[in-house]
C-alpha cells in the first residue's frame, strides 16, 4: 500500500506506524501475514510503501478483505481519516472450472430435471472438454428399483468465449416414498491438465415434495 505525504516535505521528516488487523473476511496468517511496521518519511520524501505478504488460500475462492491501520504520536500529522484506517482487498485469482455460486444445492423430485451450472475462471483462449456426472448416493433398498435420478455423465465443451455452461439431468418422480430427502452427487471429471476452483464434487439434496 502506498502512503503519500502532502504539504511541507522538503525540510520535515515524519514517522508513523502501520499494522494489519483481523477485521474483515480475510483470515490472518491464512490469507495474509500479520504485519506491523514503522514507516519513516525522510526529508523530501512524498510517498512510502507498506507491504503485507499475501498467502494462497486453496479453500476460499472469493474476494477477501482485511484492515490496515496507521497512527503517529503526533496526531497533527495525520489530517485524513483515509490514512488512519483503510480496507485492503485480496482478489481471487483462481483459474479453472467449478460450480457457479448459484448452482442449485437441492431439487424437488417432481421438478422434472436438475441443472448444474458450471463456470470458468480465467483459463481463456482455448477450447476445453470434460464430463459432468451424477450418481445417486444413500439409496435405500426400494430406491434401487425406483431411482429418481440415473447415474449418468454428460460431456461439456467450453469454447474460448464461454464463461458458463448448464448441464441438465432428468429427475423422475418415484412412486413409493413420501416426503423423504435423499442426496445425489454431482462431480466434474476434468481429467489431466484442466484446473479447478472450489470443489469438484458436490452433494445435492433431492426432495420428495409429494403428499397424500
UniProtKB/TrEMBL annotation:
SUPFAM superfamilies (alphabetical): CalX-like (SSF141072)
Keyword presence, Methyltransferase: no
GO terms of biological process kind: cell communication
Keywords noted in UniProt: Calcium, Repeat, Signal
The keyword Transmembrane belongs to this UniProt entry's keyword annotation: no
Domain Calx-beta: 13-72, 101-190
Gene3D superfamilies: 2.60.40.2030
A GO term from the CC aspect: membrane
Source organism superkingdom: Eukaryota
Name listed for the protein in its UniProt record: Calx-beta domain-containing protein
Provenance organism: Exaiptasia diaphana (Tropical sea anemone)
Biological classification of the source: Eukaryota, Metazoa, Cnidaria, Anthozoa, Hexacorallia
Amino acid at each position: 500500500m502506498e502512503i503519500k505525504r502532502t504539504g511541507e516535505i522538503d525540510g520535515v521528516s515524519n514517522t508513523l506506524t502501520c499494522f494489519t488487523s483481523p477485521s474483515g473476511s480475510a483470515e490472518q496468517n491464512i490469507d495474509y501475514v500479520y504485519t506491523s511496521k514503522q514507516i519513516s518519511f525522510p526529508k523530501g520524501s512524498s510517498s512510502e510503501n507498506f507491504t503485507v505478504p499475501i498467502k494462497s488460500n486453496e479453500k476460499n475462492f472469493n474476494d477477501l478483505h482485511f484492515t490496515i491501520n496507521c497512527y503517529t504520536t503526533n496526531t497533527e500529522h495525520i489530517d485524513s481519516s483515509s490514512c488512519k484506517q483503510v480496507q485492503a482487498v485480496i482478489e481471487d485469482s483462481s483459474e479453472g472450472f467449478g460450480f457457479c455460486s448459484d448452482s442449485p444445492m437441492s431439487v424437488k423430485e417432481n421438478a422434472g430435471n436438475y441443472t448444474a451450472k458450471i463456470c470458468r475462471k480465467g483459463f481463456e483462449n482455448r477450447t476445453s472438454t470434460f464430463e459432468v456426472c451424477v450418481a445417486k448416493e444413500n439409496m435405500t433398498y426400494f430406491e434401487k428399483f425406483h431411482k429418481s435420478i440415473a447415474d449418468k455423465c454428460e460431456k461439456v465443451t467450453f469454447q474460448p468465449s464461454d464463461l458458463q455452461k448448464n448441464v441438465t439431468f432428468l429427475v423422475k418422480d418415484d412412486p413409493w416414498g413420501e416426503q423423504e430427502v435423499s442426496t445425489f452427487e454431482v462431480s466434474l471429471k476434468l481429467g489431466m491438465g484442466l484446473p479447478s476452483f472450489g470443489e469438484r464434487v458436490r452433494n445435492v439434496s433431492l426432495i420428495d415434495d409429494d403428499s397424500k
